[in-house]
Amino acid sequence: MNYGLIIEPPKPEDHVLGVSGPPFPEINPSGDWTAYLPSPEVQNLNGIEPYACVSFATSNVIETLVRFLFGQERNWSDRFLAKVSGTDERMGNSPQIVAQAWRDNGCANEFDWSFDAKITTFQKFYAILTNEIKTLARATDAEYEVRYKIVPSNLEAIKQALTCSPLTFSTHAWSRNPDGTYSRPQGETDNHDVMLYKLDDLFRIFDSYSNEGSVLKSIQLNSTPMVCYAYQITRKVANEQSWIQ
C-alpha cells in the first residue's frame, strides 16, 4: 500500500544540500530536535486515508523549525497543504511539489482549515479551497520564507543535514522487527514520508500514523531513505529577509 509518497527523479533546478548553491546554516549542532516536536496529528483520522503523508511530514518539519528558531507554537493545516499541492488528484505527492506549493501559496492555520470530526470522507478532506482561505494562507507566505534542498541518501550527509533542520524522510511502512524497530524489506520501495528528528544508533522519526499510541518510531540504519529533504525557514521583516544563523 502507498500512504501518499511519490518518488520523482530530481530536476535540473533542484538543489542538493552541500553540492549546489549556498549551504543552509548549521543552527542545531546536536542534530537532535526532540525538544521542539509539534503536537501529534494523524492522517487517518475518522478512518479516512487522504494519501497526504508528505504534507503532514513537511508541516511537521516547518512547525518544529519555527518552535526552535522563534519560540512559537504554530499549527498549520496539513489538509490545506495537501489540497493546494494537488495531492487529491495524484493520490499522493512528492516532497518537491509539496514544498514548492508552500513557497508559492503559504499555508493556512489548522483552526482556519481544520481536519476534525466533521471531515468524514475523502471528498470533504479535499473540499475546494475558498478564496478567503487562500488569502489567509498568503499571510503565512508574507511572514516566512521556506526553502528546501535534497539530502544525499547516506548516513554522513543525513547526519550533517540534521544540524540544519529536521528532515522529511522516506520509508517503507511498516515492516516491524522483533525488537520493535522498523526496516525496509529487501526489494521493496519506500511508500511513506515522515519527519526525521534525531539520528543515533537508529533513525528516530515522527510519523503521521500512531502505532500503539505513539507517533515516535525507530528505523534501522541500513534502511536509508530513498528521498530526503532539508528545509530552511526565515522570517521576512520590512520586505527583507532576516536570516537566522
How does this structure look, described?
The protein has helices at residues 53-70, 78-84, 87-90, 95-105, 122-125, 131-143, 155-161, and strands at 144-150, 167-171, 192-199, 203-211, 214-219, 228-237, 240-242. It is α+β, with helices and mostly antiparallel strands. Strands 1, 2, 3, 4, 5, 6 and 7 form a seven-stranded antiparallel sheet that branches.
Portion in helices? 25-40%
Distance between the termini: 41 Å
Q: Main beta sheet, described?
A: 7 strands, antiparallel
Low-confidence stretches: 238-245
Number of helices: 7
Oligomer: single chain
Mean pLDDT: 93
Order of secondary-structure elements? HHHHHHEHEEEEEE
Structural class: alpha+beta
Shape: globular
The proportion of residues in beta strands is: 15-25%
Number of separate strands: 7
If you compute it from the alpha carbons, what radius of gyration comes out, rounded to the nearest whole angstrom?
A: 17 Å
SSE diagram, text form:
Elements: H1 53-70, H2 78-84, H3 87-90, H4 95-105, H5 122-125, H6 131-143, E1 144-150, H7 155-161, E2 167-171, E3 192-199, E4 203-211, E5 214-219, E6 228-237, E7 240-242
Antiparallel strand pairs: 1-6, 2-3, 2-6, 3-4, 4-5, 6-7
Helix pairs in contact: 1-2, 4-6
Question: What key attributes describe this structure?
Answer:
single chain, 245 residues, alpha+beta, globular, disordered C terminus
Characterize this entry briefly:
The chain has 245 residues and is of the alpha+beta class.
